[in-house]
DNA sequence: TCGCCCATACCCAGAAATGGGGAGGCGACC
DNA sequence: GGTCGCCTCCCCATTTCTGGGTATGGGCGA
């Protein structure tokens, strides 16, 4: 049973406590599914300078050297496709997801000569936190194990979750607790309301709102309204959906 | 075979061409897996306030009325947890993901009286494009079908992808582009620095920083520094790691 | 060469946030 | 009964942000 396989391998991946463990578990998983290679990349910091935080793979070193040496990651079509897809995708479907330039097509051909031919990539994102992908790859002489792609989807997701945990994004433990009223005020502040506007919304006085916000700042040791909002967001006290989409139900 | 079930149901979901089709396919899938209810919510759009949203569910109307009527969606803990998780999660694990207030706990109890007791929620995100979740729910008299959770993970993801396709797939995000200097300023602002402090850090004048921040606000159509930061964060222009981790290296 | 964008710098006036202080009422808990 | 946390309200002074201007110089592509 394939799903049993996923449960077994997934358990092994989720119980990994180090990058080496994860490498081991991923290698076994890839083999069991009929893939020769795998590559997991997890970035904390999608913006500019914060580079790749985790990169675990068993690509041939010849290809890895070329890839890193020529900084191909900067314009890797697989990576670009991963940023635009919710589901895992087969590499031969990439052109339907994004435009692929001639240069990038040439890159595919080169990788094939290094034993990286066809594959399946599982993307996963958390806005503001993580962008990651996990690829399972076959060489030029092996067929893509189509019957295993759904399993790969699960295993890839487990691997990414495991890597995130290992990379240090354990749920924060001793987070400050805000009172309900404080949280209300933080939420409305995150929605861009001023203290005065919040006071009208909540039906309390301007000074009371100011007090709530002040005390919330104190609890988070944040000296700025923005910092308070960011910490609350980071802690999961409020969410992007809370902030951006409250209009819908209003 | 459970994985066969996933393939069958997944095919049905991916071939849906309308919201009604999708409703039908999801209903069948939920039943096959042993769930009584399902709810799929998907929101598209990043910049400003434009955006479509899809909500497909078969919750009892009594509960849906309460939910919408009291605007509970504005701070739904399930939705908040969905923004903090890469994988699907069981509802009884939510307190380990995010803080849950007493009020929200009470909300759980209320929903249970409406036949919404336990569930499994699959989140999926594309920064700046899509935020979605798909929940499968059991009533108070039914056990959560634990053996089906991995299948639910796959079905939920398919459903989200299907909904995205139906909702009109707006990949060409017209998200605002900031200049390098503007991004610098936004990043330092997110780190809690005032304009004057940023000017010292970047070695430029106070007024120049103010101008950069001002123009960044204009591009995001954000009237508050906080809103600007939040949009930049949601868009992936900056990340929590950028914001909170800079101390480490400094 | 002209136009456009970018970075830089400056000015102003009004609104908002920050960081202090104090105080009363109310319910829970010991 | 006393203490503690929470919510409410008020005062103050100072800093910071917001929303308008204007202007110079450099680079880059039409």
Automatic annotation (TrEMBL), chains A, B:
InterPro entries: Sig_transdc_resp-reg_C-effctor, TF_LuxR_autoind-bd_dom, TF_LuxR_autoind-bd_dom_sf, Tscrpt_reg_LuxR_C, WH-like_DNA-bd_sf
Record's keyword annotation contains Transcription: yes
One example of a Gene Ontology biological process annotation: regulation of DNA-templated transcription
Gene3D superfamilies per record: Transcription factor LuxR-like, autoinducer-binding domain, Winged helix-like DNA-binding domain superfamily/Winged helix DNA-binding domain
Keywords attached to this entry: DNA-binding, Transcription, Transcription regulation
SMART domains named among the record's database cross-references: HTH_LUXR
Domain HTH luxR-type: 171-236
GO molecular function list: DNA binding
Pfam family, one: Autoind_bind
Alphabetized PANTHER family for the sequence: DNA-BINDING TRANSCRIPTIONAL ACTIVATOR DEVR_DOSR
Protein known as: DNA-binding CsgD family transcriptional regulator
Organism: Hephaestia caeni
């Amino acid at each position: 049973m394939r799903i049993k396989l996923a449960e077994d391998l997934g358990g092994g991946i989720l119980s990994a406590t180090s990058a080496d463990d994860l490498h081991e578990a991923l290698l076994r998983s890839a083999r069991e599914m009929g893939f020769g290679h795998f590559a997991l990349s997890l970035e904390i910091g999608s913006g500019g300078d914060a580079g790749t935080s985790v990169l675990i793979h068993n690509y041939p070193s010849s290809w890895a050297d070329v890839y890193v040496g020529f900084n191909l990651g900067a314009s890797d079509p697989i990576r670009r496709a991963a940023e635009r897809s919710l589901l895992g995708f087969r590499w031969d479907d990439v052109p339907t997801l994004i435009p692929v330039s001639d240069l990038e097509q040439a890159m595919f051909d080169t990788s094939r000569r290094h034993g990286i031919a066809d594959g399946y990539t599982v993307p996963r994102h958390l806005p503001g936190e993580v962008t990651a992908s996990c690829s399972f790859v076959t060489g030029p002489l092996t067929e893509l194990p189509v019957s295993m792609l759904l399993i790969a989807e699960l295993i890839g997701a487990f691997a990414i979750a495991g890597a995130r945990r290992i990379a240090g994004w354990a749920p924060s433990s001793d987070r400050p607790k805000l009172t309900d009223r404080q949280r209300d005020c933080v939420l409305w502040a995150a929605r861009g309301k001023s203290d005065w506007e919040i006071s009208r919304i909540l039906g309390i006085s301007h000074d009371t709102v100011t007090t709530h916000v002040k005390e919330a700042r104190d609890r988070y040791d944040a000296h700025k309204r923005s910092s308070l909002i960011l910490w609350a967001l980071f802690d999961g006290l409020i969410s992007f959906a809370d902030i951006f989409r409250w209009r819908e139900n209003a």
